[in-house]
Amino acid sequence: MYRVFEALDELVTIVEEARGVPMTSSCVVPRGDVLELLDDIRDALPGEVDDAQDVLDKRDEIIRMAQDQADEMVSSAKAEAERMMEEARAHAERILAEAKAEADRTIAEGEAEYAEVTERARTEADRMVQAGRDAYERAVEDGKREQARLVSQTEVVQAAHDEAARIIDEAHEEADRQRADCDAYVDGKLAEFSDLLATTLRTVDSGRNHLRSPLPSTARQAVYDYQAQ
After folding, report:
1. Would you tell me the crossing angle of helices 31-149 and 154-212 to the nearest 10 degrees?
2. Domain residue extents for the chain
3. Separation of first and last alpha carbons in the chain
4. Beta-carbon contacts of residue 203 (< 8 Å; ≥ 6 apart)
5. pLDDT per residue over 56-95, tens digit each?
6. pTM of the complete model beyond 0.70
7. Residue 19 bridge partners (DSSP)
8. Is residue 109 a contact partner of residue 200, using CB atoms and an 8 Å limit?
């Protein structure tokens, strides 16, 4: 191909340097030199055309091979993306199932413990209230008996009234104190149950966050390539 261009350049030079014909745009060129250059071009063209065709043939083969390789890579990427998506889906479903089972178990245990604590607290509260009521009634009876015994003595009677009132007030205070202790006990157990429920909710939230976490960058790129097809 180089000889073809070289011969063409020489032809251009010959034409440019040729002597012009007066009163026309024609020129006089050396016929022998021009014919010789044309023969060189004619002889060089077949080989150069064959070389160019070989390049074209190789180009088509290279393009075909590249297309085949690209198709294979796309197919592999699609298969890998589908496999990774399936694994991620299965992993997420397994985590969600485990979190749900753990939450159900924790809630069931918490409900059972809450029922047990509530029942114990109720029983203890009833016992303490009854004990306070019994103490109050005994104090009233003691006050009445003491009042009857001292009814004939004015100062003693007044003292008996005061003592009876004091005993009654102490009985009320004891009953109130026992009731407050019972309420504090029940409140403490309810707080423990609240902490247990909070821990369970954090476990469930963690499972949900893991489920929403993004795929690795390679898998995400494969999915994007797959969707772009």
Report:
1. 170
2. 2-228
3. 42
4. 99, 102, 103, 106
5. 667 777 778 878 887 888 888 888 888 888 887 888 788 8
6. no
7. 28
8. no
